[in-house]
Amino acid sequence: MTAPKAYLAGPDVFLPNAAAQAAAKIAICARHGLTGISPFNPGLDLTLPPAQLWRQIYLDDIAMMQGCDLIIANLTPFRGASADAGTLVELGWFLGQGRLVFGYSNSAEDFAARSLAQMAASPDPAPGLEVENFGLVDNLMIQGAVEYGSGSSLTLPPDGRSREFDALDVFELCAAEAARKLGA
Amino acid sequence: MTAPKAYLAGPDVFLPNAAAQAAAKIAICARHGLTGISPFNPGLDLTLPPAQLWRQIYLDDIAMMQGCDLIIANLTPFRGASADAGTLVELGWFLGQGRLVFGYSNSAEDFAARSLAQMAASPDPAPGLEVENFGLVDNLMIQGAVEYGSGSSLTLPPDGRSREFDALDVFELCAAEAARKLGA
C-alpha cells in the first residue's frame, strides 16, 4: 500500500529555519507511515515580481494539496488570537473536499483568554464585539473542521503546558493519530 | 430563475447588533438579485451546555453553507493581523467545494504594515519569523482563494480609505460584483 500523503500546513514556512523544520516534520511522518508534503519550496524563484510570485505560491500550494489525502495543520496561534490565516483557508479546503482534516496546536491556552489578551494589546475594531467562549483553544469552526473532518480531536499538549512555537512533540502525536486513523 | 444563495460569512455575528447587521446585508443582497443567508441564528438555544452548543453552531453553519451557491466573506481584520478565523475556514470550504468565492475588507491597510503593527503590540511567538509582503491586504491564500475561486478580486474600499468595522458600502460593492458574475 502506498503511504497516505499528508499536507503539512502551517506558519512554519515563515521560520528562519523553515527548510530544516520541514525536513524534521517529513522525517516524523515517515516514522509513522505517512508521506509528508511541505508547502515550503526552496526552488521558488524569489526574483519574480511580487504579483507573479504570490500567485505562483498559491498555485503551487493548491497543486500540492490536490495530491494529498489529508492535512496536518499547525494551528498554533500566529499574529493574533487565532491560527495562521493561510493555514485556515487550507484547512477549510480539505474539509470542503471531503479529505481528512487533522490539526494540532502548541498552545494550551483557552481561546477566550487569548482573545482578551489580544484585545488588551490591540483594541477591537468596534465596541461590544462578543468573545467566543466555549472552553476551546480556537474558533469553533476550527475545532469542528478537525472533529467532523477526521473524527479525531485537535491535538494539544497532553500535559496542558504550552510548547515553543517550533516544538515538534505535539505534531508527532498528531501524525501518530492520523496514521492510526488511516491504518498507515 | 431562482436567486443565487450567498452565504454571508464574517465576524459580524459577534456584533452587539448582529441581527440588524444580518438583516441589512440580506436587504442589500436582495437589491442585487441574491438571496443572502446569514449564519446569525437568533433561534439558537443558548441554554445548551457549551460542548453541545458549539457543535450545534458548527453543524448549522455547515448545513447553511451546503445550501449556498457562493460565499461573500467579510475579511476585515479581526483580533490580529488577518481576517476572522471561522470565516477563513468557511472561505476554504467553498473553494474546496468548487463553489464561488467572493470577499471584501473594510480595511485598506497593507498586510505587511498590519503584521508589523500586530508584532509591535504583541511580539511574535518565535524570533525571526518572516513577514509576508506582496503588497496584498492579507495572506496570499485568502487573495488567491477569492481570485481563483471567482475570477474577481477581493473588494476593497475604492477610495483607499478604511471603513468602520460594520460599514456596508464595500459589502454592497462586493455583492454587486458577485451578482454581475452570476448574471443574477
Distance between the termini of chain A: 9 Å
Shape of chain A: globular
Q: What summary fits the major beta sheet of chain A?
A: 4 strands, parallel
The CATH architecture of chain A can be named as: 3-Layer(aba) Sandwich
Low-pLDDT segments of chain A: none
Helix content of chain A: 40-55%
Query: How many domains of chain A?
Result: 1
Order of helices and strands of chain A: EHEHEHEHHH
Q: What's the level 1 CATH class of chain A?
A: Alpha Beta
Structural class of chain A: alpha/beta
Could you tell me the strand content of chain A as a percent range? 5-15%
Biggest interchain interface, per-side counts:
A-B, 68 and 68 residues
Describe the structure.
The structure is a homodimer of 184-residue chains. Chain A is an alpha/beta fold and 184 residues long. Chain A has a single domain, classed as Rossmann fold (3-Layer(aba) Sandwich), CATH 3.40.50.450. Helices cover 43% and strands 9% of the residues of chain A. In chain A, α1 links the parallel β1 and β2. In chain A, α3 runs parallel beside α5. Chains A and B meet through α2, α3, α4 and α5 of A and α2, α3, α4 and α5 of B.
